């Protein structure tokens, strides 16, 4: 007979004594269990003791997390969190350097536990650490030369403890002084060779900027881009990641009027070329965290274009009108202007109207009206001028080539440029906040200071080429734009390392090639419409759906590693969730780092019976998506969010690593609840598998017409001599 569910068998250690085997009744108060353990070893004052896990985490067991205890777990009887916090609070103020160092090392380790952290913070521990950073360490400055390793370790443990304590979100970031910020900022320069101190200092600065507007202003005054750049030129990718994260945080939190100024400073300091040389083209793989920070920097850089993208042209603004005059001058190299007589004025207007028509504007009389739609607003005109000035030969060739055609196949340069700019802004999501989970950066955008403009120049030439290949007329404009978008998207998915490589990829994606790809995809997804085939489809579909369901459930049994998102992304914790092989329980628990393979059930502390699940919600309906926070309310995170609701108010919140995992988990959970699997992935899998199964079943019927009615049953044979008797 199995033991009751509330009874857990564990071993409990106590220094200097043999471990004690005992059964813990989870219904009993934790204090009475601790008293029972203390009585067994004749220990008085049981209220000064606590239980903790004897593994590397050393986390305290509380009423909140006691359900994480598993059968066979090894626990340790130790001093209570309050006692431990009090002792460490006193020890870190010791006059002995060795004792102080050992105490700070212990503090850095214990601070990961939220139970201990709460007790230490209640003793005003954060203030003590900040005082030590501000002034306490100066007491040992003179000893640095003879005791440098000891001093470095002491500071490293102090900052580690501070970071861990602040990570629990118990204390507001707004409480820190300018002196503390100055000290942390100084460590970024002073301890460039001490990786641990530098890493923690950068992490603290990033958290300050992201979590407090007041601290952003103070940090921005103390730390300069020039001070951060040297850390990108090193070889430690983790330090490079933290450095780019601080730059991104400063960029993200900067007021709108300061962002362009900051971008100019980054350009002066050659940040782009330094990242390209020392990060992107370094002889090592780029990890996920670095890829995310590069993606964020890419998005924030392109978002600088939002102001121009949303600015309408003022037809009365002479400076803006002069840009259109310049486009005309470069294209047609107008001779000296006519005299300002009334006759010549009419002649000049007529000439301008003719030239604006050749330039492909919709409004020939006043082309400024073409730029009043937002997006793309003035950004389209900026791109056209850049193309005309920096790729003058290509610009003149495109304009003259199309203006000289009289067969209605001319490609309107003005209209094309406006629509293309709008399309490129949509592809690169200009104006949207960076996603918390995306790693999709493009190396080619780090190869040029004006990468968006160069991107446009390549694509406008592609558009002109595709227009000619399609022999398009003005009625085909939207069709051409669809083909061009497909060409660009397919080239971008290959992640070209340079703009030249991107251009080369586009050369191979001609209109003819796109037609071949489309034809191939159509054939693969061919849908036979004859009645027998539809009946066969109907018969096969339940089998295919059951196959998809089993695949989803098998994936849930394998499990997935999820991130716990917080304000300081690199310090995120991982957690793992998987379904039990009998499909009755979800096992989940926190991890120290991302696992390399499957995580065993017994190492996951929590479990949730499938029978207790009330509903699965997605997107904006998720409880954790209703919270407001920086970078949280954006489209991509919403598309990856789902939650399991259980009991009256219980919830398990997820943010999937990618769209595929999102579909797998929402499908699997719906299958467990007996609901339909409605994801895009299920639809695609169903179409693919149905098509394959039907083609396999019809393999021998190739080129044979399938009759609408079944053939007649043949007559019985005259004898059965051909039958082989197996007996």
TrEMBL record:
InterPro entries: ARM-like, ARM-type_fold, ELMO_ARM, ELMO_dom, ELMO_domain-containing, PH-like_dom_sf, PH_domain
Gene Ontology molecular-function annotations: SH3 domain binding
Keyword tags: Apoptosis, Cytoplasm, Membrane, Phagocytosis, Phosphoprotein, SH3-binding
Subcellular location: Cytoplasm; Membrane
BP terms from Gene Ontology: actin filament organization; apoptotic process; cell motility; phagocytosis
Key word Cytoplasm present: yes
PROSITE patterns given in the database record: ELMO
A GO CC term attached to the entry: guanyl-nucleotide exchange factor complex
Annotated ELMO domain residues: 319-492
Function: Involved in cytoskeletal rearrangements required for phagocytosis of apoptotic cells and cell motility. Acts in association with DOCK1 and CRK. Was initially proposed to be required in complex with DOCK1 to activate Rac Rho small GTPases. May enhance the guanine nucleotide exchange factor (GEF) activity of DOCK1.
Protein name, per record: Engulfment and cell motility protein 1 isoform X1
Organism: Pipra filicauda (Wire-tailed manakin)
